[in-house]
């Protein structure tokens, strides 16, 4: 059976087993419905369309169902591969296992060695000298360790792969450390920056409905990961009994770390309730934005030929990018 | 001794005892410093200026100190009263008491019977039928009861008087109830609206440095009252053990109430990390804004003569308002 | 025969008589035209589509024509009911009457007792003490009484029902009066506010092509109801001979009332040529906006199931709202 | 006695008689008030300052008073001439006349032959073929002829000289006619354009307090010249009995001409309640803006030396302009 | 054979030979592709659609190919003519010539006598007294004379006809000269203005892929005509050896002329790297904008009937314009 | 003699020799002028004020003059050191030399070993494999080597120190290289990025009047460094004869490198005539902005005590930053 990355329009018809990621039912201008089905396996993603939709189709083709095609026809739409769904079968987990597949065969995974990098991160955090930053960061990471290592960073915008949340967060840490020697002249608290970087998106664990990220949760839609993360951090400080100092005043290091989360989108209009008021938050919000943009633009570039332009990228204000270079 | 409201430029010189609210040291274009001293007593506020500033002045004239003038000269600046500070004495609490004054003689107080209105509010909250809204709201109000009834709503923008936070919050509740019968056709959860209204600014208890509101706290500056209030509400749900429902999912009524706080500024650019996504949040954010505007514009109107215009009001995009009407 | 509110997708085919509200001819991507036909009767509105369009269809199916279906098929599009037009007949007024229907059977009507509320309004206006406000307001309302009581407030945005203009305007009056006791401390001229509220949209009588509001008039498109209303008010002052005071100067109360209309959209970018410069205009523009938003959001909420989200609402910057509550 | 244009810093002290245009009392950082006095005569304008201000000064030095200095000292502030007021006398009209001056000696006048150009304009209007445009335009111009020929176009922004309103309006007419032959290919109604151009600012007659333009009137501040002009035009149509056509419908040519006034600021954010929806309104709003900008920038350029930059120009978003060229 | 301008929906089927201007392949909601083919000849432009698309169609129907229809069916879409492509032939240049056509039969041409107007322009430039402006302008125009006289000014936005670049540029020159006499009072360097006007879009010769303007070039997309033009002007100064004055300083007249190009879009947000800082750049950018708007709005007006409205015009912020007047 | 960094308010009066960086003459509200004099030496910068200004002062105290104070009094303004100028002497270069000082004693210098880092850069550039990028970059750097190594990056905004242009540009190069290993998955042309980074501000050599950066040049003000740099790069390609490829088409690698300069401000509103359309330009513009922000915020932080806030920083939208950390 073919993997998604191996499908091309040069093949007339292929056999395929894939996981359904998202389903959108739309109505065409001829009055009949059609279905946009996002397929995924470990090797990539492809969009498919079913041009005739029955009630049965609506019931069967759901996010996270396994769909099997004896024959499916590769097509092309604006230069991008698209499959045309005819007959199909829905397989349950049992059958999938029977056929020798496992769950991980159907998820795109972050291209990093998470286990090893996580060990590196922990080593790094152990060396953080500020006790508040250290305790809160390790506390929160450990508390949500399982989700933190496996969740994607978003549904579609960026790092939407298994382990994407960790990949994105740890990349920010590594970027900060990488430029450190160029800014030794400046009054930057690198411990605060590293801890803020690794924690800034922790609320995404609640923002997404689950690790398959087929939707946002109610909390995600009504509160957003920034406010969730901030409240979780505050709760962790309570749990660790370090929310206040001895005099009963709020621990200012807790406040600083909360600010790193709250200001991580950089501007109020991007959802940050407060904008950076410390130099570390400027650096974090800059790298957060840069890392997401590189992922997204590169992702779009991989879909087109060298010398061509991507389609309009919504998160880039609708701009198109030129693929002038090939690795 | 005169009260601040009785001072006018028709008096040549007056005896005065007042509390210092804020002090700003500025440097004039002749190279010498001068001091802007905001004075307050129970009857109002007046700005004073000291045109020669010594190191001793800087040490003595501080927020919340009591300042006594045997003779101070009423002046006028752009049609607004201004005092010219010459000699002065700083009195300590003891001397103030000795002279027969008490603390409350030096704070402008909200023009409402807080005790009675608070009783009304509690009666109202007892009737809330949604158990989550009811428990969280009563829980949080009771927890911070003392501060909630005495804090102002802001340093300068609006309801900057003792009890201003309660006054502002409860006015929103009363406004919501007042228009209720005009919107019986609509799917509005009035319990959610009332509870959201009374809680929406609860974070201001931490945002201001203390009840005299001479400054914002570090948390206030780096986190803001919206994020503080949201985290406090979440913590209260934990304390009451209602953060999750039986199935372990987050209590959606908690989420709705958190959303009321987070969306209360209405727009991201005004500091709301999420914009209203439920009809109740639309109403709350509208009344929040309206109540603050009425207070502020009216406050500026009281400073000018009928037929005149106020100065530029910063929170009104610098617009000036006409005083065409006198109560 | 079924009423529109009784149609559901559970019915296979229904008999129907309805009024055509609007017709849009569009071309599908298969190159053939299709027709979007907005149907209405006293019980509600439903969208219908005709997927094959002939020249005869274009001539017959027009706004305000009565369309009869022996059999029409209920469909669903993105969870919202949609009818599929096959054969149809166009009935003239005579036939409609013959069949026992009357004009009012085909218009959605504001859910208020207009006659009674209008009497209340008049009683209220009689008590206005400012002679200019009183004379102008009663004069203008009386002059256009018939239209004022029957026109909708808009084609689609809000209060687009028979009597919607009065409903919306009088709701503003009632809202203002409802919050009055909470703002007794402020210098607000309630007479001016009430008169401004009832008059602020009077220009809509000219902005809409007629009471069925199938389109905007040329004046509506090129001038807008704000400028039309302002000129009508000025003309009324001329008619009543109160445009100028005895000294030949323009009557400042006329100017204040004109300002209430001109500033009713609150911001220049929303079409107000001048922004509020009196406190009454702040309140009016706030309630104008709030009342329209509540109507529109609620209208969208009624179209979806509890727990679901509305579609994107254009007048809410494309935001979607959650239906979390059911009356 | 010197004229204002002849004063320079090379003179130690000069004798001067001027009209006071505007007076601003400000308070310096040393706590004492000072007065900014804008002086004018037929040859130009100069700013003067009085650094010590008595109650008597406030009463005597008022807009439109005549002020006489036996000796006044020319100064320089950021390269711009400024006078320092010491002793002065206020002369009444009688004394001014006695000394051989007349009113027109104290007003800057538009550098055009208004009488002759007005004759040209009238000739032009007589040739307008559209009867509505012609009747309304001639009607309104004739009705306010005296003010139209003598009023300035603004207090400070542009064409703030006697006859400035006519000068500005007729320049727009001439500009439109000048480019006409370059746009013969386009469907432009030049009659509408010309009539709109000459009428677009007619409301300024009411917006300014009087022809000396020492302030804006209450109508000016609360309504603005655009809304005033629109209502005046509507009233004129009533007076001429051409507001409606025979069928009782509103005269669409009246509507078009009203649109020319309402859309003359081009954008809602600049105070136009409706933006251009006809090609003629695009041209008018463009020339309105261009003519005002040329006047203002040139006015600032005349104040500086060749090779220098103007100060920040508020109406140009604070930009500065280079004087690279000298006529 | 018919010309494009003679086609109407009253004809059932027509014979046609046209040039393909642009081709867009789109996918309909029934899953099949269709082709939008923009056709042109000397008499105008018409859009055609091919509803079934084969690989062969994609290869044959390309920009600048000649397409011949024995029979093509006129249709209508939203009141605008549209052709439905069935069978077709692609003719090569030879066959086109054989049939008696020439290249110029297939391009819409600017409605001006370019040869004569170019002679006028050159005469004008010969009279420019500033030697730098004169040398640079004549130098650059002469260097790219062929392209300058034949290129369009854009692909679609405005003056997208053969000779459009010259037509647009020279119209600006004529407009500037036309209003000159109304601004004799101002310090305007008319030589600079004229030279700037004629050169401001010279970079479009590189921005467009060739004179048929079927696409933008890579330089056009990555640099833009403003930056290209600026660099070309600088290079021309080097070639003429006038980039620096005798003292080795940069020739300030070169700088001024470069500024005219760089500031010609008026605002940074419209792509001008620097905004006007001289009065001449204000006038140029105003006329540049006005001329483009008149062309575009008029072009849209020609497509609709009198009394109707155009479709939404993207370059006018989506506004629609009323065709109230017919030449 | 004291160095600027050693002056504090604890000293009553100090002897001082410094270079004048900038002079601003302002007029106080008492009508007299005062002078703001920015002083610099190798150890830092301090603002001084002269409260009485004579014509002689204006002539003597000019940018780049050496000013000597036998006694000058340290003051404080809003917590920031300020000197009060009394008597002074202006020393010429000769006298400065006589006293044992040299030019470099009066300029703040970038805290990097420029010679060594420049060698590193050259080594790096030698390894660039793309011949166009390599030739253009080395060509341009070599051509303006002297200026490139010594110019500051701006007058005041950021890196306003000797060697600041190189320091800033090379830091971007080092930052890009530092994060490289975190983005090996992406299609990034690191050669293009590095060359773009080192060249992006090369136009500043012309934008500033000279290496002491006491003002911007006319080209700087009217063209800006982005447009200047783009034209210089184009000229260099001409000189190296690589502007076009063999087929006569423009060298697309030149175009890409020009785009890196033109898009380096990231947004049109920040002065980039074209926004990033390649992934490398996204990274460059992000680091350009980040490096400038870190410099500026850190610079402001050094002026205040730990626990305090900076003043409003204009380039940070007027935000203030907290100094919570000390190196």
TrEMBL record, chains A, B, C, D, E, F:
Family matches, as SUPFAM superfamilies: HD-domain/PDEase-like, Nucleic acid-binding proteins
Boundaries of every HD domain copy: 168-292
One GO molecular-function entry: hydrolase activity
UniProt keyword Magnesium present: no
Keywords of this entry: Hydrolase
Swiss-Prot/TrEMBL GO biological process terms: rRNA 3'-end processing
Keyword check for Hydrolase: yes
Protein name: HD domain-containing protein
Organism: Mesoplasma syrphidae
